[in-house]
Specification:
It is a single chain. The protein is α+β, with helices and mostly antiparallel strands and 389 residues long. Strands 1-16-3-13 form a four-stranded antiparallel sheet, with no helix packed on it. A four-stranded antiparallel sheet has the order 6-5-10-11, with no helix packed on it. Strands 2-15-14 form a three-stranded antiparallel sheet, with no helix packed on it. Helix 1 packs across helix 2. The two termini are 35 Å apart. The protein contains five helices and 18 strands. The relative contact order is 0.20. The chain folds into three domains: 138 residues, no CATH class; 110 residues, no CATH class; 105 residues, no CATH class.
């Protein structure tokens, strides 16, 4: 579903088909769609997650960086901390693969950089050190040898066994510095790989993780209470040495008051639960506005009609405003009578009708969402009249 699809659906529902005398321009419809998406998001937000690194003796952290800078974090949904068993992570590889050129034409002519990470049941390490090679004419393919292997299985008494189940190979684009996923080796034995992938095939691939999540997952997960925009639990004995504010997963600056320059959240931890180092990970689930533009959409296809309905309601509401200038007029001599006062009322009733339908559909979504949550919390034993509460 693209923005243009919703625009076309709105015009069909409003009987405002393409032509020279359209009532609503695309800009008008886009504004109405924007309002509908904003309202829809309040009932059914886009939920994303990110893993953040804990900081020693710190409770307060800046909001996580959103999955898309155009759709900032609205609020936090839940936080799992710690995500994995302390001391169960694997270290990143200490060396990179050895590189050599071979005949080929798929790669560009310049420097390429490579790195390798380890995969486990719980996640992935950060990449190891970068190694690089410079391609030459007709030698535009790269042989990777001595690809580092992961360590043997690591057993933690009374906890479990952590095992390396594969490795990810990352590569930059020609002359670049950003790594992209090149290949996944689904074992811990293969030590060679031939790279013939073009830059175009890598441009939309995932980038390597910023935090090490290769440890053993805690079960059941520990969901923590937290306070947003708060420094309630800050104290001189529970702050990182550098202060609270800073980029995601980093110790910030002491120059500003907590929460002064960015939104923050405070984990409700007692002193015995404070992180002692930065190896522990928290998984933060957060809400953002839904995407709906020319690139794509995060709105479920089943909810397309709700967005169209809301956009039509807001478009009708906006069009009603200029009709308020209409008036009743009677010529003094010819006695002709012109009455346009019924037009604003008709537009108002049409917009109110659409808005009522839109609100009802939003309430349906809310009931469906709450039903699903209740079913999970009560293991399916939802009271017969739960919706009346």
């Amino acid at each position: 579903m693209l923005l243009s699809d919703v625009e076309n659906a709105c015009r069909l529902d409003l009987f405002d088909l393409a032509g020279a005398s359209q009532r609503w321009s695309n800009a008008d419809l886009d504004r109405a769609i924007d309002k509908a998406v904003e309202r829809y998001t309040q009932y059914y937000p886009n939920i994303a997650m990110v893993d953040m690194q804990a900081q020693p003796f710190q409770r307060t952290y800046p909001y996580p960086a959103s999955w898309n800078s155009a759709y900032p974090v609205l609020w936090l949904e839940r936080i799992l901390y710690p995500l994995q068993v302390y001391g169960s992570v694997f270290a990143s590889p200490t060396a990179g693969p050895s590189l050599s050129l071979t005949s080929g034409t798929n790669l560009g002519l310049d420097v390429y950089k490579y790195a390798v990470s380890l995969l486990t049941q719980g996640g992935e390490t950060t990449p190891g050190p970068l190694v690089q090679v410079t391609t030459t004419s007709s030698n535009q393919a790269v042989n990777l040898a001595s690809i580092p292997l992961g360590p043997l299985a690591q057993a933690l008494p009374a906890v479990g066994t952590n095992t390396v189940i594969g490795r990810n190979i990352y590569r930059t684009l020609v002359g670049g510095s950003t790594l992209y996923l090149l290949a996944t080796l689904a074992d811990n034995t293969t030590t060679s790989y031939l790279d013939t992938a073009s830059d175009a095939s890598l441009a939309n691939m995932p980038q390597p993780p910023l935090v090490n999540t290769s440890g053993i997952m805690l079960w059941p997960p520990i969901e923590r209470a937290f306070a947003e925009y708060s420094n309630l639990y800050d104290s001189s004995t529970a702050l990182a040495a550098g202060g609270n504010l800073g980029n995601m997963g980093a110790v910030g600056s002491h120059q500003g008051t907590t929460g002064a320059s960015m939104s923050t959240f405070t984990l409700k931890l007692d002193n015995s639960e404070l992180p002692k180092d930065n190896t522990l990970i928290m998984r933060v689930f957060y809400a953002t506005r839904h995407q709906l533009d020319s690139q794509g959409s995060t709105i479920p296809e089943i909810h397309r009609d709700i967005i169209v309905l809301g956009a039509c309601a807001y478009a009708l509401e906006a069009y009603q405003i200029p009709t308020n200038d209409n008036f009743a007029f009677q010529d003094g001599s010819v006695r002709d009578h012109l009455d346009d006062t019924a037009i604003p009322g008709a537009w108002l009733r049409a917009s109110q009708n659409k808005m009522t339908q839109f609100q009802r559909r939003l309430e349906e979504i809310k009931r469906q969402r709450d039903y699903a949550s209740s079913a999970i919390a009560q293991w399916g034993q939802v009271q017969r009249y739960w919706w009346r509460i």
